[in-house]
Amino acid sequence: MNLESKVIIISGASRGIGRATALLLAEKGARVVATARSADELKTLEEQSGGRIVAVAGDVASEADMQQVVQTALDRFGRIDVVINNAGYGVFKNVDELTVEEWDALMATNVKGTFLLTKAALPAMKEQGEGHIIVVASDVAKRTFAGGSLYTASKYAQEAFMGALRKEVRPLGIKVSGVYSGLVDSHFHAKGQGHETSQNWLKEKDMANALYYIVSQPTHVVIDELMIHPLEQDY
Fold it and tell me: What domains does the chain contain, in order, with CATH numbers?
């Protein structure tokens, strides 16, 4: 499907899944507003897209920054069709090893950031009578593991947030989709991208293709949930 008329905001777009998705959606014709904290990496992304991507540096944990991202999209393009909440990271330790600072910082990005960008975009979507909120969560929004208390708590929180939001906005013509991925070969993991142990994991492009599939559905179709794993991962 051609995305020529779509205006899409993506957080965490400076690298990884966010970057791959921004480039793919721009290639498919969307007008993409990309945000992340790294202004330099965003500038490179903007240049690489040939002008299809508008970069706005900002912290998803800052209400003012997310309002600015949304306002930029409205000023440049007049509407917002899709918000992809992709920004996030992980800290993996036993509970008694976690610090309060680690807890607060991760929750600010993974959970508060999802709330703030979504909240900033909703008034425009309500006025339009349509829109689409997507959250790139994880399969650990539905399971737990030792050493993952902080990360899984953030993903369970995103899951609950999506569930309640879906009930609020579905009658208004606004879609809500959750993406639950398994292992992805990216900078996210401690051994680094391209390590021999992750050769058969999902690739960033796989995730970008999944997100393209979701946003390219016709108006009357919503992909409520998409669970995606590499074949080698037990499920």
Answer: 7-228 (3.40.50.720)
Strand partners, 34: 10, 55
What is the pTM assigned to this prediction?
Answer: 0.95
Element (H, E) at 133: strand 131-136
Secondary structure of residue 226 in the 3-state scheme? strand
pLDDT tens profile 74-116: 999 999 999 999 999 999 999 999 999 999 999 999 999 999 9
Q: How many residues does the chain have?
A: 235
Residue of 151, 180, 212, 213 with catalytic role: 151
Active site annotation includes 180: no
Q: Rounded to an integer, what distance in angstroms lies between the CA atom of residue 148 and that of residue 59?
A: 24
In angstroms, the CA 133 to CA 123 distance is 12
